[in-house]
Amino acid sequence: ELKVEQNPLFLSMQEGKNYTIYCNYSTTSDRLYWYRQDPGKSLESLFVLLSNGAVKQEGRLMASLDTKARLSTLHITAAVHDLSATYFCAVDRDDKIIFGKGTRLHILP
Amino acid sequence: DAGVTQSPTHLIKTRGQQVTLRCSPKSGHDTVSWYQQALGQGPQFIFQYYEEEERQRGNFPDRFSGHQFPNYSSELNVNALLLGDSALYLCASSPRTGMNTEAFFGQGTRLTVV
Fold first, then answer.
1. For a FRET experiment, which of A62, A83, B4, B112 has its CA 20 to 30 Å from that of A42?
2. What is chain B's pLDDT, residue by residue, as a tens digit (114 residues)?
3. What DSSP line would sit under B29-80, residue for residue?
4. What's the half-sphere exposure (Cβ side, CA atoms, 13 Å) at B51?
5. Which residues of chain B lie closer than 8 angstroms to A98, CB-CB?
């Protein structure tokens, strides 16, 4: 059974600091997603990672994928308050997406 | 391109009632999947439809059923509603074949069971 584990589950950090969210998954996958979710809203797709060594960046967020270690990271650089949200890692295998529990990120001004 | 659209956006039902949620996939997509997201949790896979048939199913009881129409749109039906069915229901669509089979999510339907 495919399992996805994120850590930390909760993160409170100061503006301007850097931090990394980790995502481990238990079996091979077709692709890995990172999503952002604001309270009461749907999922906003941030990154789709397909191959080993893939790295994508958008603004202050950078995602990477190591398929051999079954590990993806979401790195936040110089955090700003607007990045406060819940971030989900999800793995797509055989057209079924399995989500982690999410990381609730709170950035303090 | 309207993307994935779901209706209604919010719904309040009484315990024991039945509910139908609707999803129109993104243009060019023929596969629809449904997810349930309880408060504070990650989305959980309910089932997937392709060619008007249920192709995969997650760990949900038979009270949860679905349908896909020839135009690829889909419905999620939940019978005998329980308080625990209160959640955000998300629909995702994707193309079955091709170079890019990335899934796209709709805005969700917030179901409250009272």
1. A62
2. 679 999 999 999 999 999 999 999 999 899 999 999 999 999 999 999 999 999 999 999 999 999 999 999 999 999 999 999 999 999 999 987 766 678 899 999 999 999
3. --EEEEEEE-TTS--EEEEEEETTEEEEE-S--TTEEEEE-TTS-EEEEE-S
4. 4
5. 45
Q: Are A88 and B42 a contacting pair, CB within 8 Å?
A: yes
Closest alpha carbon within chain A to B35? A97
Q: Does B25 touch chain A (CB under 8 A)?
A: no
As to burial, measured by CB atoms within 10 angstroms (0-12 exposed, 13-18 middle, 19+ buried), residue A101 is: middle
Distance from CA of A20 to the nearest CA of B (A): 19
- Could you list the mean pLDDT of each consecutive 10-residue stretch along chain A, which spans 109 residues? 93 94 90 93 92 91 95 96 96 88 94
* B101 near A CB under 8 A: yes
**The tokens of B2 are what?**
């309207």
CA distance B28 to chain A (A): 16
- List all residues 6 or more positions away from A6 whose beta carbon is below 8 Å from its beta carbon: A21, A22, A23, A24, A87, A88, A89, A100, A101, A102, A103
Phi, psi of B84 (to 5 degrees): -70, -5
The residues near B110 (Cβ < 8 Å, ≥ 6 apart) are A40, B9, B10, B11, B88, B89
